[in-house]
Amino acid sequence: MVRLDRCKDRFLGFFVYSTVRSATIKSHRVGIAYRLAQFILLIYIIGWELIYKKGYQAFDNVSSSVTTKVKGQGFVPINSSIDKSMDKKDPSYYQKLFKFDTNKTYRLMDTADYVVPPNEYNSIFIMSNFIETTQTQGRCDEEVTKPKAKCLIDEDCLILGDATNSWNGIPTGRCINSSTTPGVNVCEVKAWCPTEHEDSRNEDHLIRNVLNYTIFIKNDVEFKRFNKKQRNILPFITNKYISRCNYHRTVDPYCPVFQVDYIMTIAEPDDEQKYRMLYKGGVIVIEIIWNCDFDFTDKCLPRFEFRRFDAKETKTATGFNFRFANRFRVNGAEYRTLYKAYGLRFIINVSGTAGKFNIVPLMMTIGAGLGLMSISVIVADCVMLHCTKNKTLYQKIKEGEVKKELIAGTTTASTLYNDG
To answer: What's the confidence (pLDDT) of residue 411?
Structure first.
């Protein structure tokens, strides 16, 4: 029977509502802490949440499409090698390599030659240096730098294990003289011949004038939620203007034509590193940032940022490069021209958000702010219970344990006077 009564009391106790006891504490210390906390929270809610973070707006992320076009002529010297006596430790060494010499004969390279592949998604590659090898199927000596390629006798070219995975062809089992390194024997391979031989100083095919190339960027964006479409080519821009302008952050910030030299100067201010990137390749990110506010205008302008993405020169795997080949036939025989291309890879990232007034986020921000205001009560309670002389009495009042004679004429409110 007793157990049944206990269960009944617990069940009925679940449906009991308790109110918070209210007490007026006339303490300057507690009052100052309470109002200061309210003031700080009010500044945070209004200054940060409503004004800075625009808590009264609904937001939408940008959707975009990017089209690029490169213009400029490159020049590669014909039958002319770089002066090997140049000191590579000279800070201006790489800059001198790309210097245009009027006494030399050059072959022209245009967009179809140095933009490889012709079209990529939100990126573009501009070749600035290359190794060129014309090849046909046959038998020839392997490159001396390949693992286990050097040999003394034919038997050295028979049991090679996994070493041949990085070779240019299939070993024939013969040990022959190297065509590039006199006095050294290497294994013969059946491959595209001659094999590519990369000199440690492969400057003979450096493309001059790369820094004067220009990149035209057309960026169309949409904010679906607000049914707004924007583009970086403004209404006043004409074909004549595009043919003459070059982007500059302060002088001409709306021009959609970007000079490679200007981009690289911002992305890599060090001149030596800039020319090293032309020599060994590198990766640069072009950031197009659309942060739009459609409360007062339907127009929005993008902001452009440039930064180097790859790490600066290290001992291994430096820069950016890849290989591609152009095939052709001569008298029925198949040939190919193999290129190891070094150059600048520009990655175009488009980001941003747009905002517009909406009553729903405004109400949510105000509601969250009102909830935060309760923190001021917690702060005041902490000061009252830990930093005042009558903290023990205040604790009893909060917990409802104080005797009735201490409560000033009411069962719902108490006034306790100045505690200092």
So the answer is: 41
